[in-house]
Each structure stands twice: as C-alpha cells, then as structure tokens.
Amino acid sequence: MVHKILFWSGFGLAVRFWQLGIEMRPFFNKESLWAWPMFAAVGGSFGYWLTGVENRQLQILADRRSALMEKRKRRAEREGASEKVEEAGILASTS
Q1: Cβ distance 44 to 8 under 8 Å?
Q2: pLDDT tens, 27-81?
Q3: Please, how many CA atoms are within 13 Å of residue 52, restricted to the half-sphere of its CB?
Q4: What is the per-residue pLDDT for 88?
Q5: Measured at the alpha carbon of residue 47, what is the angle toward residues 38 and 64, in degrees to the nearest 5?
Q6: Which of 2, 33, 36, 69 is most buried, most CB within 10 Å of its CB?
Q7: For residue 89, what pLDDT band results from cuts at 50, 70 and 90?
Q8: Distance from the Cα of residue 68 to its chain's centroid
Q9: What is the pTM for the complete model shown?
Q10: Which of 31, 6, 5 has its CA nearest to residue 20?
Q11: What are the φ/ψ torsions at residue 28 (nearest 5 degrees)?
C-alpha cells in the first residue's frame, strides 16, 4: 500500500515539474513553493484511493471465484449422480 502512495506522490511532483517546464518558469520559486506539497498530497491521496479500489475489486473477484467453484462442485455432484442412474439403465437393458 505504501509503495503505491509513494509512487503517486512522486507522480504528482513529476506533474508539477512538467507544468513548470511547459510554462518555462523556475522550478523552485519562493512564491510558489506551497504548490509542491499540494501536488504530492493530491497524487498520494489518489494512490490511497486507488489502493482501496484494488482491494475492493480483489474481494469481489475472490467472492465470485468461490461462488463459481461451489456451483461447479454442485454441478459435478449432480452429473455424477445422473451418470450412475444412466449406467444402471444401460446395463439392465443390455443383459
């Protein structure tokens, strides 16, 4: 989780570098130093939110996987029982 927050904080700082480079302004101007932590905080909060989204998606996928596995197990049991009945009918008719 921390690595994602740090990555997106760094991405926010990179966006600030890019913005100042496009505007051809100095990177560390005393009047605009307040924006650096803001860009890092916005990027970090996005990373934190994205971590929550990923955790929720992984939980949904795990739930769906377990539901599918239970469904397949019930289907295999049902088909296994029906095959036994068919085998008895086939053997009885051929004898």
Answers
A1: yes
A2: 888 888 899 999 999 999 999 999 999 999 999 999 999 999 999 999 988 887 7
A3: 5
A4: 54
A5: 155
A6: 36
A7: low
A8: 19
A9: 0.66
A10: 31
A11: -120, 75
Residue type, 30: K
**CB proximity list for 12: less than 8 A, separation 6 or greater:** 39, 40, 41, 42, 43, 44, 46
- Spatial distance between the Cα atoms of 84 and 95, rounded to a whole number of angstroms: 17
- Unique residue bearing structure tokens 């905080």: 41
Which segments within the chain are labelled E, that is strand? none
Residue that is written with structure tokens 């966006």 in the block: 15
Q: Which residue has the tokens 């029982």?
A: 81
Output the six-digit token pair for 47: 């990373």
Contact 36, 16 (CB under 8 A): yes
Residue pair 39/17 in contact (Cβ under 8 Å)? The answer is: no
Q: Which two tokens stand for residue 78?
A: 């049902």
**Structure-token match 């560390």, residue found:** 28
